[in-house]
Structure formats: structure tokens, C-alpha cells
Amino acid sequence: MTRKSRRLILISACGAVLALALGLILSAMSGSIVFFRSPTEVAAQGVAPGTRFRLGGLVKDGSLQRGPDQTVEFAVTDTNATVQVAYRGLLPDLFREGQGIVAEGRLEPGGLFRADTVLAKHDESYMPREVADALKAQGRWQEGKGMVEKPDDSKPAPAKPAPAKPADASTAITDKTLGQRSER
User: Fold this and answer.
1) First vs last Cα of the chain: how many Å apart?
2) Distance (Å, whole) CA 57 – CA 81
3) What are phi and psi of 177, to 5 degrees?
4) Distance in angstroms (rounded) separating the CA atoms of residues 144 and 123
5) Backbone angles phi and psi of 13, in degrees to 5
């Protein structure tokens, strides 16, 4: 065997081992991948019963029902569709109606989502990214403002206030180093 052929065999063997390792890693990860869906996507796509996924949205007002042995039922909505959720366990301290949550679990044949895990937002400006993206797509979420009411076409848009002008334009100077306006 020449040097060149030995090198080619070694490189081929290393490539085969790497391809096998990559294949094993990808097949092991395929069982742990969990997709996010909004209630509208669940309704529109007809998710098969038994499918594991993350459901995100807002806890619908008036839907929270507590049962015995830490069982809880509530509805998750994105304002277009609603999915009923059943959960057994302790809810996060900040869990309440009208707040954003992400629940991970499986869809049952009757359309009930049986959650294993429920995550709630942790402060007033936080919304799980997936939930915010779904609400943004519907025009119901704005960065920095949170949930916004859907515009009603029957009402006229409010007039924007005119920008404030200084009392006397000759006395207002702009400080270029600080970028602030000061009066003389």
C-alpha cells in the first residue's frame, strides 16, 4: 500500500465514523424536540391526538377552575381560538387569568390539552417569545406596550397630538454635547 492510499482509507474511515455519530445524535434528539403552537394553529392544523407540543397564549378570563388534589382546568386563548387545558400540580405563583403562559403536554382525543408543565410570565413586561410572536402576527402585541386591543374599524382613529414647540424659538438652544434642550 502506498502512502496515498493509506491516507485515503484513514480519511474515509474517519468520515464514516463522524457520519454514524451524527446520525445517532440526530435520532436521539428527534424524540426530545417539542414544537410550539398557538391555539389558532392547533385549531387550524388539526393536531393529531397524542402529539406532544408546547401550547402558548393567554389564560382566558373566567376559565380557571380548581379541583381536588391540585387539579386545575383553564382555557388558553390567542383571542382567535381557545384550547381547554387540564393540569395536575402546583401552578407558578404568578399564574392568573389574563396572563401569558406556555404549557407543555399532549393533546387528548376530545381536544383537551393535558399539560405536564405550566410556565408563567415573571414580570409585567415579559411575554414568552413564541406567544408574543403569535400575538404580533395577529396585531395584538406591541413591543414595550404588551397586549393591545384589536382595532375596531367602526371607530375613527384617535388624532395624534401635535409635537410640543418651545415657547420662544429664539431662546431655546440645543446642547450638542448632551443632546438635550436647555432654555436661556
Assistant:
1) 91
2) 10
3) -75, -35
4) 13
5) -65, -40
